[in-house]
Amino acid sequence: MGQFDDLREYVAIPRVAGLRLSPAGDWLAATLTEIGPDGKKYRSGIWRIPVDPGGPAPVRLTRSADGESGPAFLPDGSLLFVSKRPDPAAAPADGDEPKPALWLLPAGGGEARRIAAPPGGVLSVTTAADVPAVAVMAPMLPGSAGPDDDAKRREARSAAGVTAILHEAGPVRHWDHDLGPDELRLLTARAGADGLDGQPRDLTPEPGRALDEQHAELTPDGSQAVTSWMIWDDPAGARCEIAVIDTATGARRVLLAAPGMDYTEPVVSPDGTLVACLTEEHDSYQRPGDQTLVAAPLDGSAGPADLLPGLDRWPAGAAWARDSRSVFFTADDYGRRPVFRADVAGAASGGAGGGVTRITPDDGAYSDLCPAPDGRYLYALRSAVDSPPRPVRIDLAAPDRGPEPLPSPGAGVQLPGTLTELSARADDGAQIRGWLVLPARASGQHPAPLLLWPHGGPNSSWNAWSWRWNPWLMAARGYAVLLPDPALSTGYGLGFIARGHDSWGERPFADLMAITDAAVARPDVDAGRTAVMGGSYGGYIANWIAGHTSRFQAIVSHAGLWALDQMFGTTDLPMYWRRHFGEPLRQPERYQANTPHRHLAEIRTPMLIIHGDKDYRVPIGEALRLWADLTGPGRPPVAAGAPKFLYFPSENHWILTPGHAIAWYETVLAFLAQHVLGEPWQRPDLL
After folding, report:
1. 97-101 contacts at long range (C-beta below 8 A, 24 or more positions apart)
2. Cβ neighbours for 122, distance < 8 A, ≥ 6 positions apart
3. pLDDT means per 10 residues in the chain (687 residues)?
4. Which domains does the chain have, with CATH numbers?
5. In 582-657, which residue ranges form alpha helices assigned H by DSSP?
6. Each residue of 26-50: b (16+ CB within 10 Å) or e?
7. Structure confidence at residue 387 (pLDDT)
8. d(CA 312, CA 280)
9. DSSP secondary-structure letter at 313?
10. Tell me, what's the pLDDT at 348?
11. Cα(52)–Cα(391) distance, rounded to whole angstroms?
12. Of 464, 443, 457, which Cα lies nearest the Cα of 534?
């Protein structure tokens, strides 16, 4: 039996994540996630990976019950990481859940030691390239004058039994957690042989919600911190700036800002003169906003220079070459996510970039770019729809050779099928492409039932491996899986996104039906046995499909949007809807035109609804409303069985724990077997 035949074996496959290159460029630190001993949760550890394809086997560097994450290097090669592991030098803590702290593993070996433990914990860490300076993002209560004062305030709240949060501006929730009373602050310090030299300095004493989900870096000399900074000037007009903070005085100045624009993910050039960052134009009611990569002098002497003029793709994951003359980045591109290089050319004087070159020629999806100090190699994580992430080396002198796999701590996989590319012409003439996963035994004599899987987003693309939505689990059970990129998908240019800007339902629906027609026209796909399943925006379009066609035998809707005007007032991100769909009371037209719930009476297909209660992006009310509409008085005449509702009280937008992932797939597979394969309904044992 293979890894994809047994769900328990599948969820136990080790998974490689983040990648960091040591200052000398002689080894990589990677995070590996594995299932814990009790099988109830995942935990991560940090591994040492060689930079040579023929190098030694990876070595595990950290191990604890709570795991470790966020590796970062000091200039001497010492490794910093974040962990909740108990400090052996401290007295055992009572009561509260332990908070993540900052730990240091010496470059010369030895035991890791805790060097910073703010009362609210440590969220992330970054370091300076040339000096032993450290910056951490740490939650603190409003008004706290420092870590000691913060500890007293926390004790006072706990003693009084107060968990209430007073909001005066900005958002109140994010994805799966309440915002506040903690606010993220940026703390800096120098690291010595025995830990930090003194108490960390608070650079942002009254940030409000400015640093939520933001990225900060130190300049190579540690004298300045560069961070993205959210400005909540009004509910619809929140925007992100790039701020520069003097680490000695705490003085903050704005480097990049503009109305209707977000500047995010800043990275400082190795010579300390330039800042590159992603730039995103806000969506408007009329059109989608565009995105690009810009660079600007750190001293503010010139404005931002567009590094990607003429490139109709959205960049991500920027990383500077060590000579500070170019920036590497990734971008979705026709069902792939290759690596590109942008020359900075005249960016120091506010001029345009010097050109863009595609580096990787293969079908991979790349992330975690790590340029080597000597400029010869680029290290990265590479995945694809048919390949889990693993570390690779790219020879920049001969990139056409393709990536060289490095020794990896993650287990290899044996796929139960094959991957092929598929395309179709939509009714408006646009070319729609996607990936088709075929089970090993599919043939003209034994055609496979088809599962249509629209992706989430909606601005996304099927181009990388997915542990959560894995088509190979379905292929192992005989299903073909269609992974299409309809209107609103990335990797095909801004015009392709604009095709669906005001038509979230009808335009992508027409694209999906066109490519589904192409799939079922194949002799190895069974046109008479088909189903749809999707999550988030994919759940939305599954709900839309349910009310617009009866060609499918089953529909699975995970975290799907159902009643758009209802969701506007309960989601954690209403500003997105204000920009894109308008204010529902004053501009109800787009909500009404695109909401699936208005087509309830047309639903004829059995539906499985799945939702987590801690999902604040697409709140549980969407599933509850859909369930009530499908089962209450006046429900639609679904001929082939009642709907089902799989509810996870402790999960969020994603289903993250191993046991729940197994229950999710068991339920989906049983539902599909009943309605697509004609087998008796078999309720999962633990449900």
Report:
1. 98/66
2. 82, 99, 100, 101, 102, 116, 136, 137, 138
3. 89 95 98 93 96 95 93 96 89 73 92 94 97 97 93 95 90 91 96 81 94 96 98 79 97 96 98 97 96 97 94 98 97 98 80 84 96 97 97 95 93 92 97 98 97 98 97 98 98 98 97 98 98 98 97 98 94 91 94 97 95 98 96 73 92 96 98 96 96
4. 417-675 (3.40.50.1820)
5. 589-594, 621-631
6. ebbbbbbbbbeeeeeebbbbbbbbb
7. 96
8. 13
9. S
10. 66
11. 11
12. 457
Q: What's the rounded Cα separation, in Å, for the pair 160 and 176?
A: 26
What is the rounded CA–CA span in Å between residue 243 and residue 593? 40
Cβ count within 10 A of residue 441 = 13
Q: Looking at the DSSP assignment, which residues form a beta bridge with residue 525?
A: 448
- Identify the residue whose tokens are 């997915």: 466
d(C-alpha 592, C-alpha 44), whole Å: 45
Contacts of 234 by beta carbon, 8 Å cutoff, 6+ apart: none
Structure tokens at 338: 């290759």
Query: What's the angle, vertex CA 526, arms to CA 520 and CA 531, rounded to 5?
Result: 80
Q: Decide the pairing of beta strands 124-127 and 133-140.
A: antiparallel
Distance CA 85, CA 456 (A): 35
**DSSP characters over 588-607:** -HHHHHH-GGGGGGG--S-E
CA 398 to chain centre: 31
Q: Angle, to 10 degrees, between the axis of helix 537-546 and the axis of helix 506-520?
A: 80
Integer angstrom CA distances of residue 11 from 270, 403, 567:
40, 27, 32
Maximum distance among all Cα pairs of the chain, rounded to whole angstroms: 74
